[in-house]
Design goal:
about 200 residues, mainly alpha, about 70% helix, globular
Length: about 200
């Protein structure tokens, strides 16, 4: 999903979640409150592991894209993709070592450093993009509702046959997917009512 569509989706989400200052989106259009949630979802979908951070101030105060900015936008997008890959690799390494490992603190610091670089790059990228039109926004929300519905169905299947900790994790993922679907549907309903 392109940045302009994510910004439009973020506008609606910020409208319904007034206290939230940032959303993290995966390339399939799913929105998350926490970067690690988005990173986990991106890793699970195995599509491209890209996580895009949208900051509330950037959505409220967008800037026009100029021809000179177009080249820098492409470079920033490439930087974000590279940083997201680095982040997922570091998170995988962090999740695979024991909690009492002496390497754990160093990996946690590496993840924090990567997250800071991602945040800076996302801020620069968001500041250089123009939001989509109203019609594109509604279409993006319709796609988000459909995708969220698909994810709920997928997570419902994943819960079957699980037990213990695996059941707890699968149930948590299912509940998150249902919440995302409710948010997406609410955003679409709100935007569709406003457009009429």
């Amino acid at each position: 999903m392109d940045k302009a569509k994510l910004i439009e989706k973020a506008k609606v989400l910020f409208g319904s979640h007034g206290q939230q200052k940032v959303f993290y989106f995966t390339s399939d259009g799913q929105a998350f409150f926490k970067d690690w949630q988005a990173a986990n979802h991106a890793r699970e979908t195995r599509k491209d592991n890209v996580v895009t951070k949208i900051i509330k101030e950037d959505v409220e105060n967008p800037t026009e894209v100029t021809k000179t900015q177009s080249e820098s936008i492409g470079q920033l997008q490439a930087d974000v993709e590279d940083l997201n890959r680095q982040q997922l690799t570091a998170l995988d390494a962090l999740n695979s070592i024991p909690a009492d490992s002496p390497d754990k603190a160093a990996l946690e610091q590496k993840v924090d450093d990567i997250n800071n670089k991602i945040e800076e790059t996302h801020q620069a990228l968001a500041a250089s993009q123009t939001p989509a039109s109203e019609a594109e926004s509604i279409e993006a929300l319709k796609a988000a509702v459909q995708k969220a519905s698909d994810v709920v169905a997928e997570k419902e299947l994943a819960v079957q046959g699980k037990s213990g900790a695996a059941l707890g994790a699968a149930t948590k993922a299912l509940n998150k997917a249902k919440a995302d679907l409710a948010v997406a549907q609410s955003a679409l309903d709100s935007k569709s009512t406003t457009a009429e």
